[in-house]
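#struct-pred

JT: dropping the chains for the assembly here, can someone run the whole complex?
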Amino acid sequence: NAGVMQNPRHLVRRRGQEARLRCSPMKGHSHVYWYRQLPEEGLKFMVYLQKENIIDESGMPKERFSAEFPKEGPSILRIQQVVRGDSAAYFCASSPSSQGSYEQYFGPGTRLTVT
Amino acid sequence: DQQVKQNSPSLSVQEGRISILNCDYTNSMFDYFLWYKKYPAEGPTFLISISSIKDKNEDGRFTVFLNKSAKHLSLHIVPSQPGDSAVYFCAASPFGNMLTFGGGTRLMVKP
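RK: done, full complex below.
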């Protein structure tokens, strides 16, 4: 009964490069959420996806950031032309599709460092 | 504007005693509340949740209380154990959508 998987666990990128973060939800879960945690802060919502659909991207920066959850494969959070301020821990969470089940289960996170 | 606030950044408790972590919220649209526990370099672990139609939910050593009129919830851990030492986040959700997190409270349980 695997939990939420994220890879890589650690990612180092130079300014201007692209970062791709992957998330595989728990088995049977069709809702995926991405959150970002800056140092010494709480987690901040970025985007909510279901298979092949973006449901809510109100927390996503308008530029350089994009997310997808294809029919097959993991969800991807993509950050283009990274800057130092993108250095943070990025967490993915998943939840079941059944109504009324609102608990979200988190992966171990990807720690992005931009040098 | 912080919609979910945890005003105590840290709390120190003796092993065996009660730990009480507090959380306040401002958005009346929140109808589901959750507590997570987080160790360094790991993802948050779900602990317990409560719907706005209830005022108490209990699971083993963990009890969450919700006071809707005061827009306040608390997590009680009894008895506290050294392994409970971690950062605790409260989170709130409107209709099962995205979670809004508080800033966290670092709990230290001393043996």
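JT: nice. DSSP finds no helices and eleven strands in chain B. The longest strand of chain B covers residues 86-93.
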